[in-house]
Design goal:
By secondary structure, this protein is α+β, with helices and mostly antiparallel strands. The chain contains four helices and 13 strands. The strands form two sheets. It has a seven-stranded mixed beta sheet, covered by helices on one side. It has a six-stranded mixed beta sheet with strand order 5-6-7-8-11-9, covered by helices on one side.
């Protein structure tokens, strides 16, 4: 089983159409079982999308899909390549005053269920601090749940990471395998904060427990939220609630494995088949 997470930056990226095509080519070549995407945008006032061009949509929101929606267009390009997949998108907040911004999951097996939970203290679409998680279960892996996450920062006085993690932990099922995939905004290199809190809660970091891995770094430059970053940090992570080791964990879309397409690099974790039932 192969899992991929990427904070896309989507419509905020320069040379966006070319980067969208690179993403579709990468997804077609790598064929991850589940893809988790954060910062998946669409213009709030755009024309509605023709969903027949991107089959497999599993709605979890009443908001219409716009024609420039990032995940819609990624799936559309995959469909043009003859690759069928299934997808869902959750708008979480207004981004940069012009976007519906949210989370998305793509599966190459039919989605059989979705789950949404607000983990921030507030649930205000106009407030950029609003945070939710989005989960799916699939036909191929009915005993497992896969969640896309994008948390706030440890030191945020209004919406600290710790409170969002407590809501997450209280909501997630404990009687089945669960993966959390996304931008945790908690550098793995920093002790005594978000990363250590997740690990102390009994979760396993796919990178830390992988038999084969690279440096795992997903952000190398100053970006929004990490303006003082002076070196590489590993904030994009894949966690599992069972004692299962990944065969391999590696960074993707970093100019070594495919060109850079976002202000974050992606992460792929590969597991032996059957691990989702252990």
């Amino acid at each position: 089983m192969k899992l991929l997470t990427l904070n896309t930056h989507s419509l905020m990226e320069t040379e966006y159409p070319a980067k969208l095509e690179i993403f579709a080519e990468m997804a077609a070549a790598e064929r991850p079982d589940i893809i988790a995407l954060q910062e998946v945008n669409q213009h709030m006032d755009g024309e509605e999308a023709d969903l027949s061009l991107a089959p497999g949509y599993c709605p979890c929101t009443d908001k219409p899909i716009r024609a420039d929606n990032h995940v819609y267009n990624a799936v559309r390009l995959l469909a043009e390549k003859g690759i069928s997949c299934y997808w869902t998108w959750l708008p979480v907040k207004i981004g940069y005053g012009q976007f519906d911004e949210g989370l998305a999951l793509i599966s190459f097996s039919p989605i059989t269920g979705t789950d949404v939970c607000t983990v921030s203290a507030r649930d205000d679409y106009a407030d950029w601090r609003t945070r939710k998680i989005l989960g799916i279960t699939t036909e191929k892996r009915p005993g497992a749940w896969f969640y896309c996450v994008h948390y706030g920062w440890w030191n945020d006085e209004n919406e600290p990471f710790a409170a969002q993690w407590q809501k997450t932990a209280a909501h997630l099922p404990s009687d089945c395998p669960v993966w959390l995939m996304g931008d945790f905004n908690s550098p793995a290199e920093v002790r005594g904060k978000g990363y250590d809190l997740v690990r102390a809660s009994g979760w396993r970091d796919s990178w830390e427990n992988a038999y084969v891995r690279d440096d795992g770094i997903t952000v190398y430059k100053n970006i929004a939220g990490w303006e003082n970053n002076t070196g590489g940090i590993r904030v994009d992570q894949i966690w599992h609630n069972r004692d299962v080791r990944a065969e391999r964990s590696f960074v993707i879309c970093n100019d070594r494995w495919y060109p850079v397409i976002s202000d974050h690099f992606g992460v792929i974790a590969e597991y032996n088949e059957g691990c989702e039932t252990e």
